[in-house]
Each structure stands twice: as structure tokens, then as C-alpha cells.
Amino acid sequence: MEVMCQHKRLLKRLNAELKPWRTYTIAVDGRNYSGKSSMARFLAWQLGMPALETDMFLVRGSQPARYEYDQLKKLIETRHSKNWPVIIEGIKILETLELLQVRPDFLIFMKNTGVEATGGLSSQITVYLQKYCPELKAHFVFEWNASGDALSGS
User: Fold this and answer.
1) CB atoms within 10 A of CB 116
2) Could you give all domains of the chain from N- to C-terminal order, each with its CATH number?
3) 63 falls in which pLDDT band (50, 70, 90)?
4) d(CA 113, CA 27)
């Protein structure tokens, strides 16, 4: 992953928000293949905190997809009980956090304009996007295309 100006702007904003460290939840949302995991890993590396990838908590074979919510909530609560921040990423992250009764303090929406919405989840994601409007609620929208060129970041 090439570090671009948008990455640097995002890090600057987050560093300002996070100092001093405290209970804080950074959520990374977006469609399939939008770069959520890469962004969460990059932020974890740069900010020195863990990134929780919701895919790791999927209940195998569940339709519709379900997560091990108890385990995910326990990890978030452990960080927060120590007054530490955490990054969590995933498709439909606002819905997941709502179920966990966790409010994100900073929402990043990843938008890959070079990937078409396809697959079994695309209709669920479309309904989610209409209901939760994560792009409009985001504190930072990172837009790029499939060739890796950043288009904007706000």
C-alpha cells in the first residue's frame, strides 16, 4: 500500500483526537474490496494500537452472516476498561457496533470507485448503506480507485 497525502491527513486528524490516549473507538466502514482492512492495519501500525477485523469473528456458514458478538464486545471492552483506544473494521460496521452498544468516536468510510458491487452481500450492503448512511456520517471519507490512486480524502 502506497502512503498518500490522504493517509497523512487522516493520521494528523487522528493523532490530534487521540492525544492523550483514552477510551476511543475508530471504525472503518465500506463495501467489499474498498480497502477497510488495509486502512485499519495501516492505522494500527502508525498509531500503535490493535485493529479488530470483524471477518475474524464471523460464524462459519451463517446465513445471513453473523459474528461472535460476545468475543468482539469483550475485546473492545478490555481496551476501553484500560482507557485505551481501539480500531474496528468491517462491512456494515455501524450496524455491528449498534448491536454491541458501542458508539464510534471517529468513522472512516472507504470508497473504492474502481470496484463494482457484486456478490451475495451486495443487496444487504445496499440496504445497510441506505439505512445507516455511513458515508454521510463519516468524519473522513477515503476515496480511491482500483488502480490504487487516491481521489480525495476529507
Assistant:
1) 11
2) 22-148 (3.40.50.300)
3) confident
4) 20
